[in-house]
């Protein structure tokens, strides 16, 4: 995409759009490819994906993804690349 700097925010908007239009497989693919592109999903990215799963009645998958965003002790691991 010429002229658009792709970052986590842009990918999150695309993921959210895929989810809202019922294209969950494409949202999943993009969500999982973020790390290959050098990005870490942030809170908004996880939220978009979790909401998309819930809209498709995939509650268990949404719960698993929610738990993946947190360490076992409840500490948040959502972060921007390079920040703690």
From TrEMBL:
The keyword Repeat is assigned to this record: yes
Ranges of the PPR repeats in the UniProt entry: 7-41, 42-77
UniProt xrefs under InterPro entries: PPR_P_subfamily, PPR_rpt, TPR-like_helical_dom_sf
Keywords noted in UniProt: Repeat
Pfam families: PPR_2
Family from the record: Belongs to the PPR family. P subfamily.
NCBIfam families documented for this protein: PPR
Name of this chain's protein: OLC1v1012200C1
Native source species: Oldenlandia corymbosa var. corymbosa
């Amino acid at each position: 995409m010429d002229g658009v700097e792709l970052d986590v925010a842009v990918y999150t908007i695309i993921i959210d759009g895929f989810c809202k239009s019922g294209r969950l497989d494409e949202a999943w693919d993009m969500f999982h490819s973020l790390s290959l592109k050098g990005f870490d999903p942030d809170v908004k990215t996880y939220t978009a994906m979790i909401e998309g799963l819930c809209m498709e009645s995939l509650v268990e998958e949404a719960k698993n993804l929610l738990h993946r965003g947190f360490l076992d002790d409840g500490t948040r691991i959502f972060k921007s690349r390079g920040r703690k």
